[in-house]
Write a structure and sequence with these properties.
Layout: E1 4-7, E2 12-18, E3 25-27, E4 29-32, E5 36-42, E6 46-55, E7 61-72, H1 77-87, H2 95-114, H3 118-123, H4 125-140, E8 145-152, E9 156-157, H5 163-231, H6 234-301, H7 304-387, H8 392-402, H9 405-417, H10 442-462
Antiparallel strand pairs: 1-4, 2-3, 2-5, 6-7, 7-8, 7-9
Family: Belongs to the band 7/mec-2 family. Flotillin subfamily.
Subcellular location: Cell membrane; Membrane, Caveola
Organism: Colocasia esculenta (Wild taro)
Length: about 475
């Protein structure tokens, strides 16, 4: 009897069959008894490299280069038994095992690719890879194999079907077109922003000018108010305060109206800009939808000539679209220029209106001051007339004396007779009585004797009578000596 002891290496297992073993016995070391057979197999993973020929749902062929690292799982004895049965008559690098693995991978890849469009495969490469690995792993489980690693390279065109190359050209052209669109849009935003800033500058300048004129008018009005305040009484001061409150209310209402106008203008401009941008985006969406439909038709036709023709048509349409966008940008710029000019004209009109209102307000306040002064003088005269018992002559005489009217009359008469040699008449009421020469009242009596002829002379020359409180002159009592 011949028996021997076998020991497997670190990456190997012993597969023992024969007497005393019902199926297959796996071990790292064992005694090989007579009637038993021992096979050593390696469990280290093996790399399989190949290109899978597949076809999409649109009947588009393509190549899928892939590298799979496949081997048995060392911690799963059931899987090792299945793997041992697979390679027992072959080597792990034999064509049998490679063809088996390749057949499983190609079959599952073709089935999955046939259910997906080329666009879905190209855009969802990661998802496509995961689904391929999942389905391949299910098939390899029956052979005790597991995918340790798998790498899928870039999809490759089949000679005569250059779909991916055209798709790359299309992506490159779309990127270039999008860059040109972005540049044009940036220029448009710059031009619009510049015009908006110029318009705002003109509006603010007009607003400041109007406020300066209003402030100047306010200061002038305040000076007049102080002058009127000194010359008037409490009632005039209260009227001035009420006028200041009304003026503040008017200024606040004016500013609110201006702010509301600016807010409405900004809202309208923003609405129009949003509408224009929305129209542009809608046009872009429709253009891209049309491009997508065109690409789908090109994929269905699978004709290089049709693709070239569509590319030329697309380029022509794009040139037309660029010209249309340039024309629209120019039209939009002209519209903004016109709006800026309109805003400047409105600001100038607003400034003139503010100036006119300020002048009107000043005239109105001046008239109110004169009216208040007239009211105060009327109150003053009413009070004076009441104090003098309703005697209008006494009021008149008092005002004339207070205003220096009699002094002015005397001065004018003196000026009139200056340089002349007038005939002087002396009036007296009679001869001196005996005993009056030494009386202290003689001078006073002489003064009173002069008054009647003086009043008579004034009446004859200027037509004025003496005031009632100075007495009346009896007719025929004055005598000329």
């Amino acid at each position: 009897m011949v028996f021997f002891y076998r020991v497997a290496k670190a990456s190997e297992y012993l597969a023992i069959t024969g007497s005393g073993i019902s199926d297959i016995k796996l071990a790292k070391k064992a005694w090989i008894l007579p009637g038993q057979s021992c096979t050593v197999f390696d469990i280290s993973p093996v790399n399989y490299t190949f290109e899978v020929h597949a076809m999409s749902a649109e009947k588009l062929p393509f190549l899928l280069p892939a590298v799979f690292t496949i081997g048995p799982r060392s911690d799963d004895m059931d899987g090792l038994l299945l793997y041992a049965k697979l390679i027992s008559p072959h080597d792990k690098l034999s064509n049998h095992v490679k063809e088996l693995v390749q057949g499983v991978i190609e079959g599952e890849t073709r089935v999955l690719a046939a259910s997906m469009t080329m666009e879905e495969i190209f855009k969802g490469t990661k998802q496509f890879k995961e689904e391929v690995f999942g389905k391949v792993q299910l098939e390899l489980n029956q052979f005790g194999l597991i995918i340790y690693n798998a790498n899928v390279k870039q999809l490759v065109d089949v000679p005569g079907h250059e779909y991916f190359s055209y798709l790359g050209q299309k992506t490159q052209q779309e990127a270039a077109n999008q860059a040109r669109i972005d540049v044009a849009e940036a220029k448009m935003k710059g031009a619009i922003g510049s015009k908006e800033r110029e318009g705002q500058t003109m509006q603010y300048a007009a607003k400041i000018d109007a406020q300066t004129k209003i402030f100047s008018t306010q200061r002038q009005g305040e000076g007049k108010k102080e002058e009127i305040k000194v010359m008037s009484e409490v009632k005039i001061f209260e009227n001035q305060r009420e006028a200041e409150v009304a003026k503040a209310d008017a200024e606040l209402a004016t500013k609110k109206a201006g702010w509301a106008q600016h807010a409405q203008m900004a809202e309208v401009e923003a609405t129009k800009a949003v509408a224009i941008r929305e129209a542009e985006l809608q046009m872009e969406v429709e253009r891209r939808n049309a491009l997508r439909q065109t690409e789908k038709l090109k994929a269905d036709l699978l004709s290089k000539a049709v693709v070239d023709y569509e590319m030329k048509v697309q380029e022509a349409n794009w040139e037309l679209y660029e010209k249309q966008k340039a024309a629209e940008a120019m039209l939009y710029e002209q519209q903004k220029i016109a709006e800026g000019q309109k805003a400047a004209a409105e600001a100038a009109a607003f400034s003139r209106q503010q100036q006119a209102e300020a002048e009107l307000y000043a005239k109105k306040k001046e008239a109110e001051g004169l009216l208040a002064m007239a009211d105060a003088q009327g109150a003053y005269l009413s009070k004076l007339l009441e104090s003098l018992g309703g005697n209008y002559g006494a009021v008149r005489d008092y005002l004339m004396i207070n205003a220096g009217t009699y002094q002015e009359i005397a001065r004018i008469n003196a000026e009139a007779v200056r340089g002349l040699q007038p005939k002087i008449s002396v009036w007296t009421s009679g001869g001196e009585q005996k005993g009056e020469g030494g009386c202290a009242m003689r001078e006073v009596a002489g003064l009173y004797k002069m008054l009647p002829p003086l009043f008579k002379t004034v009446e004859e020359q200027v037509g004025m009578l003496p005031p009632a409180w100075m007495g009346t002159m009896a007719a025929g009592r004055a005598s000329t000596d």
